[in-house]
Specification:
heterodimer; A: 2 domains; nine-stranded antiparallel sheet; about 20% helix; about 45% strand; B: alpha+beta; Proliferating Cell Nuclear Antigen; 18 strands
Chain lengths: ~280, ~280
């Protein structure tokens, strides 16, 4: 196979090598967190974690386990680098963004360590593209200190009907308000825009509600501009878990099935909008 | 000066429309040369078109059932017009189902190419749609600018990879860089490369084949050439992208001549249409 011969000529200096028969199993999930140019990559023997942050208030993480890759070899406990995510996505989709049935683009991703570029070998129909993307020293991702023991409210919903709600959300509203409560309205999304106030209610015994664990009534507001990118992750997902902690921090976790039916996760953490705290 | 032509075959009409659509995607304005045997859509490769040259040749007999031309003079039996191909494209779009399409040179408030389409209706009476497309007549003293371009003395000639694949790759590369290097050798290998501070991307095409040009002068230079050595030219990526975007039909032959560091000469051959496109090198 042409890709393996190319990596041999570059020597065995790779600290990370990851291969996929279908590059979409990586590019699709990365598209779900591409709202900023830069992404922090962290690889461990468990797999790949990609982090994107916005103004210290929002963090998105995509997890692609080692088992998803056809080959995943790592020579250190942890390999980290930062790279321009838009450039990376343009490279991963170099043969075009759409799928042609029966035709897949294969990927071999290699990294030599600090100071070296991220090297991608992509192959489709006998045509090989080699990309070398400059890397930077990875920044430390923010620790939102979101702790599962501090979770006050948690629901798990099937994504289908949340997708509808999110596609209809009034974007003229500066905030998205989330109310979670052991009593009515149970789980409510609210907007306050130019067309007025809108509420989307999901009762606790509706069939799309897979899990309902709310201990305390909580209402929190989050900047709409921060949460808007999460719609991409929602669109890819089949299930989503919504959790808030005692500080009102929001954790959204999306279960995504890739082209081959394997499971990956995307999570978003968001700080509550300052305004509400003052009340 | 007189020009009248008539198309009655739906296949010819569709084909002609596709050609005009392709031209309209390549350039906003161009020269239309009408001769007794052929039509040519021409860009002269001057600064005005960004140095890009185009020569599209159609054999009139393959499209028109009737074709009458009286040029500017008996010894210069042709007409040279400046046209906006998009206008012609639009007019042809409304004529898609026509029983008959006539094109003629007329003088309304200014010189025009008038397109008259007879469209079928449910009744026995046809509906007639007329488009008057303003054109500029190019005087004879300027005709020398629009002659058929000479085949450049190329270093490498190679068949192009599938245009769709090229287009996908070039579209992505355009997001990353303003300039692209095209290189090829006589071993049927072609690379498309971009390089910036952030990223370098190279796409490798193999086993493309090299056209056998025969023993003419331009082959002389390439006959003694080491087949492994690449000839390369760096171009404005948008010009290559524009060329690839316009292609609507797969050509029967597609090839490229590269003059090292000077020019990329693309040639597409269809049954009755040939298109040549010249992209100059940038520093």
């Amino acid at each position: 196979m042409p890709l393996s011969t190319q990596s041999q000529t570059e020597g065995d200096n790779y600290v990370l090598v990851a291969s996929l028969d279908n590059v979409r199993n990586l590019s699709n999930i990365l598209k779900a967190i591409t709202f900023k140019d830069h992404a922090i990559f962290n690889a461990t023997p468990n797999g790949l974690k990609v982090t994107v942050e916005d103004s210290k208030c929002l963090q998105a993480n995509a997890f692609i386990q080692a088992e998803i890759f056809q080959e995943f070899t790592i020579k250190e406990d942890s390999v980290g680098f930062q790279v321009n995510l838009t450039v990376l996505l343009d490279c991963l989709t170099i043969f075009g963004g759409s799928t042609v049935p029966g035709v897949a683009t294969a990927l071999r991703m290699c990294y030599n360590g600090y100071g070296y570029p991220l090297t991608l070998f992509l192959e489709e129909g006998g045509v090989v593209t080699v990309c070398k993307i400059n890397t930077q020293e990875p920044e430390e991702p923010i620790d939102f200190e979101f702790c599962s023991t501090d979770v006050t409210n948690k629901v798990i919903l099937q994504s289908e009907s949340l997708k509808e709600a999110f596609s209809e959300l009034d974007m003229t509203s500066e905030v998205l308000q989330i109310t979670m409560s052991p009593s009515q309205p149970y789980f409510r999304l609210s907007t306050f825009g130019n067309s007025g106030n809108a509420h989307y209610d999901y009762p606790k015994d509706s069939d799309i509600m897979e899990l309902f664990q709310c201990t305390k009534t909580q209402t929190n507001r989050y900047k709409m501009s921060l949460l808007k990118p999460s719609t991409k992750a929602l669109a890819l997902s089949c299930k989503v878990s919504v959790r808030t902690d005692s500080r009102g921090f929001l954790s959204l976790q999306y279960l995504v099935r890739n082209d081959d039916g394997q499971i990956c996760f995307v999570e978003y953490y968001c700080c509550p909008d300052e305004e509400v705290e003052e009340e | 000066m007189k020009f009248r032509a008539k198309m009655i075959d739906v296949g010819c009409l569709n084909h002609f429309t596709r050609v005009v659509n392709t031209i309209s995607k390549l350039t906003k304005t161009c020269i239309l040369r009408l001769t007794p045997n052929n039509l040519y859509f021409v860009l002269s490769g001057k600064v005005a078109s960004g140095g890009v040259g185009m020569w599209c040749e159609l054999s009139q007999a393959n499209f028109f059932d009737e074709y009458q031309l009286e040029g500017v003079a008996p010894d210069a039996n042709e007409i040279c017009l400046e046209v906006t191909p998009e206008n012609l494209s639009r007019a042809l779009r409304t004529s898609q189902n026509a029983k008959c399409v006539k094109i003629k040179l007329t003088k309304k408030h200014c010189p025009c190419l008038t397109l008259v389409a007879e469209l079928p209706t449910l009744s026995s009476v046809s509906r007639v749609v007329t488009h008057d497309i303003p054109v500029d007549v190019i005087p004879r003293r300027l005709w020398h600018d629009f002659k058929e371009p000479r085949m450049p003395d190329f270093d490498v000639s190679i068949y192009l990879p599938p245009l769709k694949t090229m287009k996908n790759v070039v579209d992505r590369m355009k997001n990353l860089s303003n300039f692209l290097v095209m290189e090829a050798n006589l071993n049927g290998e072609m690379n498309l490369k971009i390089e910036t501070d952030l990223v370098s991307v190279t796409t490798h095409f193999k086993d493309l084949g090299n056209p056998p040009w025969g023993d003419d002068g331009s082959q002389g230079r390439s006959q003694s050439r080491d087949p492994e050595v690449m000839a390369h030219t760096r171009v404005d990526i948008r010009k290559l992208q524009q060329f690839l975007m316009g292609q609507q039909v797969n050509p029967s032959k597609a090839m490229c001549n590269i003059v090292h560091k000077r020019i990329i000469h693309l040639i597409l051959l269809h049954e009755d249409v040939s298109l040549q496109y010249f992209i100059p090198a940038v520093a």
